[in-house]
Design brief:
The chain has about 425 residues and is mainly α. About 75% of the residues lie in helices and about 0% in strands. It has a domain at about 1-180. The N and C termini lie far apart (about 70 Å). Residues about 20-30, about 260-290 and about 410-415 have low confidence and may be disordered.
């Protein structure tokens, strides 16, 4: 009778949540996923309230076995109700259709934007977090109940956590993974296309790209699914090794002549050229920069970008790995995470090597450009008498010329 009663109370809460969901969906504020997430959270919260409310009285009347039956009844009813709500969410958002479209190149016209994809992903993350919190709570309650009692089996070990809700969550993860990968691809493509050089040593797409990748990786870990986390980490590695590294190499390859301009021996004309850049850090005020051409700055930024990307790749690995380890404590899960991120070190090394090759090209040009001053040094007499020393002290024959030559050569950031 008690089990039937608590099921009725939980069903009443589910009906209230459904009514609230309908009313909220008709309003303009919020997304559909947020409303479903709130409704799902209300059901889980009701389970916790009913469990706390009836545990003591049930224990006094029927002992721990009675409490175990109560928890199993609550969990079963919650499983059915939450799974039904999840099915409604997938139907309402048409996520299955969206996932099919984004995986078929022929349906580009029907694809959603990266921003819309991110809204779906954030809603799915909230749902996953609610489900994960509920599972942790219920598992903890049962573990505390069976602690020290060998004659009272843990229903979690008997598959109590594998039910309709679990199946619905697996369906959700199967849609989450391609949607997250699509978001990464679209966002990185947009970041590369909108690449800008402000008053900085690097261009915008490097910071934007790695921010996007870190956000996607942490969001995937936040779902609590090791499958989703590993799939997205593998895609992060693939994006860095293909899209980002490819864009970096193209910028280096597109600017060999600009690199030579960057160290051009025609310093007099180069020093007279001005370029104008929009500086976001100065409230949009245009700043005049003298001493090198726009082309030479693009070349320098291309070199800096690839060095900075190498550093960011290692930084991403070092930050994501402990973050994932906090979410997935088991040894096997951590091994999977580590395996997914192993290639990042190799990619970082390849980036650094490509950057060093570009710097070597610049260094060779610098030597050529300064050859006149170097040759002048070779003609200087170093064994000086008093008269020569006094003359050199007033009118140095090569130091000023060398300093002027160096000042007229903008230097790239050496990572």
């Amino acid at each position: 009778m008690l089990g039937k009663y608590v099921c009725q109370l939980l069903e009443l809460e589910a009906n209230n949540s459904s009514q609230h969901l309908v009313l909220s969906s008709n309003s303009a504020a919020g997304t559909s996923g947020q409303f479903f997430s709130e409704a799902l959270g209300a059901i889980f919260k009701k389970v916790a309230i009913l469990s706390e409310e009836f545990t003591n009285s049930t224990h006094d009347a029927f002992g721990k076995e009675g409490v175990m039956k109560l928890l199993k009844v609550l969990h079963k009813e919650c499983d059915i109700t939450a799974a039904r709500l999840m099915k409604e969410y997938l139907e309402d958002t048409e996520l299955q259709t969206i996932a099919q479209n984004i995986q078929q190149p022929a349906n580009v016209a029907n694809n959603i934007s990266a921003r819309a994809a991110e809204e779906y992903l954030e809603d799915m993350l909230l749902i996953c977090q609610h489900c994960d919190e509920y599972n942790r709570y219920m598992h903890e309650q049962i573990q505390n109940l069976v602690a020290g009692l060998s004659d009272l089996p843990d229903p979690w070990d008997d598959g109590a956590n594998i039910g309709m809700l679990n199946n619905a969550m697996q369906d959700l993860f199967s849609l989450y993974i391609p949607l997250e990968e699509y978001y990464m691809y679209q966002s990185i493509t947009l970041a590369i296309a909108l690449d800008e050089i402000h008053n900085a040593l690097t261009s915008s797409f490097v910071d934007d790209s790695f921010f996007i990748l870190q956000k996607s990786a942490q969001r995937a870990g936040g779902t609590g699914s090791i499958q989703a986390a590993c799939a997205c980490l593998n895609h992060v590695t693939a994006v860095i090794g293909s899209m980002i590294f490819k864009a970096l190499r193209e910028r280096i390859q597109e600017t060999p002549c600009n690199v030579l301009n960057y160290i051009s021996c025609d310093r007099a004309s180069s020093a007279s050229v001005q370029w104008v850049a929009q500086d976001n850090n100065h409230d949009g005020v245009e700043t005049q920069h003298t001493g090198f051409t726009v082309e030479s700055r693009v070349a320098a930024v291309a070199v800096n970008n690839i060095h900075l990307s190498s550093e960011y790749t290692i930084k991403l690995k070092n930050e994501c790995e402990p973050y994932m380890n906090n979410i997935f404590p088991s040894t096997s899960d951590r091994e999977q995470i580590r395996s997914c991120m192993n290639d990042l070190q190799a990619i970082s090394n390849q980036m650094r090597q490509a950057g060093m090759l570009a710097l070597e090209e610049i260094a060779q040009g610098l030597v050529t450009c300064l050859q006149r001053d170097i040759d002048l040094v070779n003609t200087i007499q170093y064994e000086l008498d008093e008269q020569q020393y006094a003359e050199y002290d007033v009118n140095d024959p090569w130091m000023q010329s060398m300093l002027i030559s160096l000042e007229e050569l903008p230097t790239a950031k050496y990572s």
